[in-house]
Design brief:
Blueprint: H1 6-15, E1 23-26, H2 33-42, E2 47-52, H3 55-66, E3 76-81, E4 95-101, H4 116-129, E5 130-140, H5 147-159, E6 166-171, E7 181-187, H6 194-199
Parallel strand pairs: 1-2, 1-4, 2-3, 4-5
Antiparallel strand pairs: 5-7, 6-7
Length: about 200
Amino acid sequence: MGFYSVLTMAQRWVAERVERGETVIDATAGGGVDTLQLALLVGSKGKVLAFDVQQDALDKTAQRLQTYEQQDKLAYVELIKDSHDNMAHYANDPIAAIMFNLGYFPGGDQQIITEPESTIRALEQSLLLLRPGGILTCVLYPGHPGGDTEAEAVERWAATLPHEQVNCVLYRQPQRPAAPYLVAVEKKATHKSVQSVQQAK
């Protein structure tokens, strides 16, 4: 049967934790695959914020959403041309899930890649934005130039998070070190303070 791909596993973990009508974030819209899945997941009363720095990616995402046959099943989607490390400027509601699919947009300029510094800032913001029981997923691509450095930075960041506040998991193929892999962080429902995640580090 085989194991689920990292993209499928990320979507499954998110689906298990998100309710209809909630607000969620696609931190790296790209071609809109995750954006569409999130829009279906939270339904017509929900909201999706989708970020990308490339207009081509946002246009592709908009096209994917517009061609979906059952528009009445989709959430309101706000497409935002900005870096994921500015997400806190746009998010006003408690966020149920935040999905990152790092690297580059396959249909665009492959010289434009996500960078470790801005990604870590975005992940830090994600912890503050997530509601109790919320999840962030981060698909990493160590096989492309610069991707290994970013993957290592994200993994180090996740390893420092206090286990009293969050659960972290790593999903990868150890025999294929260059293959994409997944880091996920779930905010525990019993946490006392969102800020304490940062203060404990």
